[in-house]
Sequence to fold (371 residues):
Amino acid sequence: MAFLGENIPKLGFGFMRLPMIGEEIDMEQTKEMVDLFMSKGFSYFDSSWGYNGGKSEEAMKAAIVDRYPRESFQIATKCPVWIVKTKEEAQNMIWTSLERTGAGYIDYYLLHNLGDSRTKFFDDYGMWEYARELKEKGVVRHIGFSIHDNAEALDKVLTEHPEAEFVQFQLNYDDWESPTIQARKCYEVALKHQKPIIVMEPVKGGLLANPTEDIRKIFEEANPNASLASWAIRYAASLDNIITVLSGMSTMDQVRDNVSFMEDFKPLSKEEQAVIEKAQKALREIPNIPCTACQYCVKGCPQDIRIPNVFATYNRKLVYNDLASAKSRYGLETRMNGKASDCIACGNCEMVCPQHINIIENLKIIAGEFE
Ligand code: SF4
Ligand code: SF4
Fold:
């Protein structure tokens, strides 16, 4: 069945991790990266009002909008309204984005990062109605949202807001069956609501390009010429109903590699799918905190600690041995909720945990390493 964005090439350029020189975006390199990307037939660029304090949207103007015909590319940007205090500030974000990008209109406008306590800000500030008005006036062409939450939360938003034309969420082969990210379940919910998907984090913030030696071997034995990122991006792009798969590219080498296998994109073969399944199995076997994200512990926590989410961030360290990535994710997860060190050892959570996890002890370890 035809869907919105079907004809967009299946690799999108995420403007979130652009090359930097000190505090500034390296515009010369960014332009070269954009030129190579565009020369290979790709056209979708993704930013947000909040990326790099607005410099990412300005980089879109300098590298894309000022240098290419407007109809030859799609601009996506987002409004993270949970960081402002008033409806007026929230609704002004689109005008700031238009000024910074110089794009005239936004092709794909996203309410940014729904989920948890953030979702209600979009309702409180009337952002859904406002997005519909913007679409009617031609200021934006399509409206959707990005979300960092589970399938139930996604289902709720899509049920309450059928005006969303598309949805963006984290999807990769490691998180496909993850109890916290629930990529497979989210994918199924999007299909149920007949919403096309923009994939983010296909390489899990770079972790899948830099896994442990055992995982690396599985892929290299299957195809020594394919990069590890290529497996991850092709996995996501092989699914049905995908508008595009975003890659937050930071170097020319990443652009060169990505366009090399996505220019003439072929979905994963059955044999290649089997290699992915082998890697998924090996990843599951690496020791980590065996939290199934059942959420039983969350309600009774007087300190509002999102225990399963905190454990998921620590598992990034245990499984990928990448402290920096785990710490940065921990910072995001605890920005609006309790930290591991807020635990007062009341024991409510341990009483209900069906996995009998030593939650208090684990939180102590996590607080020691991440705070
Ligand atoms: S022991 Fe700590 S984490 Fe568990 S419910 Fe009490 S405060 Fe929350
Ligand atoms: S009750 Fe146990 S398994 Fe369930 S989310 Fe909490 S820590 Fe994880």
User: Anything to note?
Assistant: The pocket of iron/sulfur cluster (ligand 2) is lined by residues 291-297, 307-308, 352-353, 355, 357, 359 (CB under 6 Å).
